[in-house]
Design goal:
Strand content: 5-15%
Number of strands: 2
Structural class: mainly alpha
Distance between the termini: 39 Å
Radius of gyration: 19 Å
Strand order of the largest sheet: 1-2
Shape: elongated
Order of helices and strands: HHHHEE
Largest sheet: 2 strands, antiparallel
Number of helices: 4
Length: 106
C-alpha cells in the first residue's frame, strides 16, 4: 500500500480555522495512521508519524505557508501567487524608503 501525504497548496486553506477544527483534522490523521498500521495506542501513532515524517496538522500548515512564500520569493512558486503577493519597501517615519527592509504584502 502506498500512503501519500501530498497535497498541493490546499493545506494553506486551513490557516485560519479554529482550534477545534485543528483538533478534528489531527484526529483524522491519527486515525488514518492507526487504521493503516493497525496501531492501538496513541504513543504508537506518534512514533509511526515520526517514522513516516508526518508533521502534525498545525505544523504542516505553517510549513506549507513558509514553503510557498520561499518559492514565491525565489521565483519557484506557482504563477497565481504573483497576483496575491506583492513586495514593497516600507517607509520610515519621515517618508524615506528604508533600504534594508522589504515587506511581504499578502
Amino acid at each position: 500500500a502506498v500512503v501519500s501525504t501530498q497535497s498541493t497548496g490546499g493545506d494553506t486553506l486551513f490557516a485560519d480555522i479554529k482550534e477545534d477544527e485543528h483538533h478534528r483534522l489531527q484526529k483524522i490523521q491519527n486515525n488514518a495512521v492507526r487504521f493503516i498500521y493497525g496501531s492501538r495506542g496513541w504513543r504508537d501513532v506518534i512514533k509511526i508519524r515520526r517514522d513516516l515524517y508526518f508533521l502534525p496538522v498545525r505544523s504542516r500548515i505553517k510549513f506549507k505557508i513558509c514553503l510557498l512564500t520561499y518559492k514565491y520569493l525565489n521565483g519557484l512558486g506557482p504563477s497565481y501567487l504573483s497576483d496575491l503577493i506583492k513586495l514593497r519597501k516600507p517607509k520610515d517615519q519621515i517618508g524615506r524608503l528604508d533600504t534594508n527592509t522589504t515587506l511581504l504584502y499578502v
